[in-house]
Amino acid sequence: MAHVQAAATLTPLRPRVDRADRADRLERADRHRLRAVDPDEVAGLAQVADFLPPGATLLPAPQHALPTLPGRPPMVGYLVLLPADQQPPAPVAPAPLAEQGPVAIDGVQRVAVVDGRALDLTYLEFELLAHLVAHPHRVHTRDQLVTTVWGYGHVGDGRTVDVHVARLRRKLGAEHRHTIQTVRRVGYKYTP
User: How far apart are CA 39 and CA 16, in angstroms?
Assistant: First the structure.
């Protein structure tokens, strides 16, 4: 019994493309290409431009790279490009202590002080306490705290916030644990 081998050559068929179709495809591709943005082009961006070092270039972030929040309008983000040979900016003058009630936050040295005693806090505990102290009497939902303190990429739930608040209360001590109040079925607030 003889074996027969068949060989086939496949050549891709190219559809006939006219000039109008080619121009349309180039226009669509150009829409997705990044281009530098002048801060005057976008409302509110001129205020941010004051904080950018000279030579910085702003690029709109691609829409697929930005997070989406249910029930919220789409986000707008920008990438900031700096020249590689640029020297780092001069150090900023130290911020004064943020003091609300018994808790003082030093954002430069990343120290939280209660009644003259420095608290031994983890990175996220410090960020959470600093955020609460910076916004006294404001009620924060668990989702807001996760988004603000942990960031958009965090995968978790509101229980994460509950655990960190419990640790913060323990570290604040019996005398000051009441400064972080629970707002039932909503979240937390700091009351100095």
Answer: 43
Strand partners, 98: 105
Q: What is the pLDDT of residues 121-135, one digit of tens each?
A: 999 999 999 999 988
187, containing H or E segment:
strand 187-190
Helix H or strand E encompassing 144: helix 142-145
Element (H, E) at 166: helix 158-172
Distance CA 67, CA 104 (A): 33
Total-model pTM: 0.51
Q: How many other CB atoms are found less than 10 A from the CB of residue 95?
A: 11
Among the listed residues 79, 84, 99, 95, the one whose alpha carbon sits nearest the alpha carbon of residue 34: 79
